[in-house]
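Sharing in case it's useful to others searching the archive later.

Someone asked me privately for the predicted structure of L-aspartate oxidase, so I'm posting the question and my answer publicly. Question first, with the sequence:
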Amino acid sequence: MNIVVVGSGVAGLTAALHAAEAGHRTTLVTKDALGGGCTALAQGGVAGVYGRDDSPAVHAADTVTAGAGLSDRRAVDVLVGDGPARIAELIARGVSFDRAADGTLLRGREAAHTHPRIAHAGGDATGAAISLALVSQVHASEIDVVEHALLVDLLVDDGTVCGVRLIDRSGPLEIHADAVILATGGAGRLYAHTTNPVGATGDGIAAAIRAGADVADLEFVQFHPTVLTTGDAFLISEAVRGEGAALIDDDGRRFVFDAHPDGELAPRDVVARAVAARAASQGAPVRLDATMIGAGRLAARFPTIDAITRERGLDWSREPIPVTPAAHYLMGGVSTDLDGRTSLPGLFAAGEVARTGVHGANRLASNSLLEAAVFGARAAAAAGDGPRATHPAAPGRRSPAPAARPDPLVPDDQWRDDLDQVSLPQLMWDRVGLLRTPEGLAEAQAAIARRRAASATPLTRSQQEEANLLVVAEATVAAALARTVSVGAHHISRHPALIGA
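And my answer, the predicted structure tokens:
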């Protein structure tokens, strides 16, 4: 078998290694240098290390609760069932998770977890440690690596995916394959404020949509509640709150308890909305108070965060630091079954690009690296079986097709002109962000449809990225309009003044 894997985060690296180790000729395509993307930026860790009174069943229950009841229970059972083996595999491949003096893995706790079960490395550098180890394994293998190559489209022959069309530094490039595994990550660059790197432009999702693959749950975009307001977006790990840090307003009050009895350890969608609402009402960012943890513990447990905050003139061991929500993770994506198969024969997906059903309406913290490793391995195994037809979209979950024409709810030409001058990321932040209204979604849909109608065939890498973002934006807005009730990360606000807060 000739297998092409697109993406070099934990999902892509895992899939490529498993495919190569199974004896398949494997090509790994990556948009930037090998090991780029979101994985290396992940701070928190990998959920799935169980202690006293904890178990895969409890982990599964926490996942379903965080997902607002919309998680696919079969997929969750696969996640927690395969999880320990994948964590053991990461250790065997050279990931040095942090350990206690007796040699046992240290376990952190994050929001919506009932127990500490998160393995971490380098304190708050888990993603970097995983990326480094897996990249080293790829270099030592016979995997062909194509770097600095942007996915343009999938090659499809008689309804079966048979390769990829790329742009690399030399120009257009086609690679033919018996199976393609998408591991291209999410689309955080849809939003003006995001924790994602510049390459997160939804390339795999857009290519899959253009090829006719089913996508689902694109309306569920997770906004991380604690991103520094000073300088470029920098995430303050949820694990900091797991260690005891508190979110406070200008009066020093822990306001998140007004929204949920778990306060700062409530599901991310709840905390993010509470942070946005309180910041809007007081006219200033809320603050994260980690002073009770102590300077020594902060530096030892969170060395990366400690260094960055101090570089930006903040001493978080002495004073609370200002934070705000930002787009972080896409729960939806290309629909897959439990083995990464999509609705197109020959096409598989794993990681953030995929909608496995694990996350439902809201991702449980530190499940993403685990999901990528689990389903990256499963996708590689299934791809080795050859291209064959797969599952239909789950009932009631498939994202609707984009509207054929602009929605008529744009109120007047002046408003339309103003909206058309706004950048796509700002439009998405204002109208399709943390808080949404039906009117705002309709306005965004109309503006995006006009932009797509006026867009030309992309000729450069940057133009292709812009085209991909437009495709994903259109599908995201259509999905958000179709879901008329609030659930999880999709929140329909009746208070338009808070939009964009």
